[in-house]
Amino acid sequence: MSHYKPYPAYKDSGVEWLGRVPEHWGLRRLKHMARFSGGGTPSRDNADFWNGNIPWVSPKDMKAEVISGAEEAITPKGLAGSSSSLVSAGHVLMVVRSGILKHTIPVAINDVPVALNQDMKAIRLDSNYLTERFFMRWVQGLNDELLKDWLKQGATVESIEQEYLANSWIVVPPGAERERILKVLDRETARIDALIEKKTRFIELLREKRQALITHAVTKGLDPNVKMKNSGVEWLGEVPEHWVVKRFRDICLSISTGPFGTALGNEDYVTGGVPVINPSHIVDEHCCPDPDITVSAETAERLSFWAMRTGDLVTARRGELGRAAVICDEQNGWICGTGSLRVRPNPGQAIVGYLHTVLQSRYAREWLNLASVGATMANLNEGILGSLPLVLPPSTAEQEKLLALLEVQSVRLSKIEQRAADSVALLKERRSALITAAVTGQIDLRESA
Q1: 244-392 carries CATH number 3.90.220.20
Q2: Could you confirm whether domain 26-172 is CATH 3.90.220.20?
Q3: Looking at residues 426-448, what average pLDDT do you find?
Q4: What global pTM score does this model have?
Q5: What residue spans in the chain does CATH classification 3.90.220.20 cover?
């Protein structure tokens, strides 16, 4: 932003976190130039209230700057039977109660009439002073400062305090100047967003390539000159001639589901004890325990049947099937949770890293999802996972060699992906900094529109 110049003269805003603003800009409290309206939830028990044609916007819909619809919709009866009201197009929509407020204030403008749930607010600005688009940019640019200024203290769920919001100071540039600022921001953010989208797509392609590489490695190997044979499994096709076709259970000493029913209840959890690993604790192929989802040493002893040891594999039994992590020395004795499966490989037939890689492959994940049970969420059990067909080199030494070759290629792709991810992060920082500088008058955009 070094090519942008500051304004010729500034004044103290009187707002500590805002600092100086252009000398000719005004300052007003939001409540003196805005009207606020909230929302509500129609009764879920009344079918006549739902699946209508009025978008019912909740925090989960706030993923773009323009809201044209919502995941759920209500009927006119639902609108009349709730504390929500119809919000005409052109309002600023803001999330005022949600865990996302720990780090971000989602704001958008609706271009169609909508209703809101109780965790949302609609704001209509007095155009004599400010516009909805400028206020949206103001919130985006000053997100961190406004979170500190607006959040309700002591709330169980992060919430914006209506009084703090209404009493906050907002800069008021002259109308024509404000529109020039918005014109520049629209142009520059669109350019940055296009670059972000391009690089994000590149990252997705790299991940797809890595997934294809893993799948090829555990079904065809990485030696292009190896002789092939028919696997006898239709969808696997040809595999290396000397490889063996097995079921997952054939190369495991055991596959066990975590404790069920009364074996482990909420009353057993303590803070800072022996970790219990459920699917949510398996992140990026590693175990990331929750300090509050642990059990005492005595309870861990009682649950010793489900204890994991070094070299075991823990994998998700529900949700994202195939998500797994290898248990290392420091995790020896941790407990396999109810939502997980503990896999104990037969060390004479398969190394744990190979089984872990198989579960990362596209073919394994697709097979597990097709074979899983459960109407609303995919679920695995020992029998389903044990039935997974796989092919593998007959010796663990060859498995080790294959994984070493795969690691070299995976690391290369990971480095490229990391550079692209760093570039995306930098672009997002640049976008945010530009908006902040523009709406607070740190840069003069009057000649840039």
Answers
A1: yes
A2: yes
A3: 95
A4: 0.82
A5: 26-172, 244-392
